[in-house]
Design brief:
Strand content: 15-25%
Radius of gyration: 21 Å
Order of helices and strands: HEEHEEHHEEEEEEHEEHHHH
CATH topology: Pseudouridine synthase
Number of strands: 12
Structural class: alpha+beta
Distance between the termini: 15 Å
Largest sheet: 10 strands, mixed
Number of domains: 1
Helix content: 10-25%
Length: 318
């Protein structure tokens, strides 16, 4: 499935394809960086695309510090469109030690996010709390909180196939820092580090993040996903020293939330959906422009045979 944010970044990001990382700290065993939005953290299998890891490798090559045993090893990751503080190990031994002791080693990990306000006042969240709904993943590995009806034991399709979804535990602590007329600024911390966790949890409560294509946000004022990994505090895996790294989110986020956005420009993904009307004026697939269609009914093989591979991927679930 084509990623509209990737197409948008190619048109609007001045440094698209040439993104730079900022090294906040480095020694013989670890490296802490500030990753920009729009850059993958690490490569996926078979990919040769530019990533934060590959850029760090290039820097180490230039500095003469790269070798087969001294190079970046992933210990966690940030979503492509999430910016902020990220840690790499520089040896296999460091990688293993960090990953084996991650929950004891990391003492604080904070995110900041700008989310759209719910359409109904009944959905407004308290000033702070915990979201602990379990997550499921669709055919494109996008996380979401399934509705009760989607995960019912008696949820079978017309072919008698049980569609009970596999879910994983997820816990997100949140605090509202600023409520505005159209958006809210959140501070968040994770008890679990599941893919898309913050985005899926807030969207499930009626708060999709601004600029979030996957969860069909209605606003994209900054031309990026408004999620930033602001703080990472941990105990050094070898020296035992307590270390804290903090990169503030853009100041314009708070200004935007306070002011509000009563007349937002239509995001690229909504424009794309508007162009998918059929001749009768009905929306393609009957999908609402502001919702992510994650729990649709499973299609039969016969139905799939009459669909192209993109449509099948959107409508079905492996």
């Amino acid at each position: 499935m084509a990623n509209l944010n990737t197409n948008k970044n190619a048109k609007t990001k001045k440094d698209f394809g040439h993104e730079k990382i900022e090294i906040l700290y480095s020694d013989e065993t670890i490296c802490v960086i500030n990753k920009p939005s729009g850059l993958l953290s690490v490569p996926y299998p078979g990919s040769r695309i530019r990533t934060a890891q590959s850029i760090l490798e290039e820097i180490m090559h230039k500095n003469g510090t790269f070798s087969s045993s001294h190079r970046p090893f992933a210990v966690h990751r940030l979503d492509r469109d999430t910016s902020g503080v990220m840690l790499f190990a520089l040896t296999e031994n460091a990688q293993k030690k960090i990953m084996d002791t991650w929950h004891q080693m990391v003492t604080e990990r904070l995110y900041r996010a700008v989310a759209e306000n719910p359409r109904s006042k009944k959905l407004i969240l308290p000033d702070c709390g915990l979201i602990d709904d379990e997550l499921a993943f669709n055919a494109h590995n996008v996380g979401f909180v399934p509705k009760e009806s989607e995960n019912s034991k008696n949820n079978s399709d017309s072919y008698g196939e049980n569609r009970r979804l596999k879910t994983v535990p997820a816990r997100t602590n949140y605090k509202i820092l600023q409520s505005g007329p159209t958006h809210t600024l959140f501070e968040l911390s994770l008890d679990t580090g599941k893919k898309n966790q913050i985005r899926a949890h807030l969207a499930s409560k009626g708060y999709p993040l601004a600029g979030d294509e996957n969860y069909r946000a209605r606003t994209d004022h900054f031309g990026r996903l408004c999620l930033h990994a602001r703080t990472l505090e941990f105990v050094h895996p070898f020296t035992g020293k307590k270390m804290k790294f903090e990169v503030p989110e853009p100041e314009t986020w708070l200004e935007y939330v306070k002011k509000g956005d009563p007349n937002p420009k239509t995001p690229l993904w909504i424009e794309s959906l508007k162009n998918s009307f059929d001749k009768k004026g009905e929306r393609f697939h009957g999908k609402h422009e502001n919702s992510l269609d994650l729990g649709q009914k499973r299609l039969s093989k016969k139905d799939r045979a009459h669909m192209n591979f993109i449509e099948a991927g959107k409508k079905g679930r492996k």
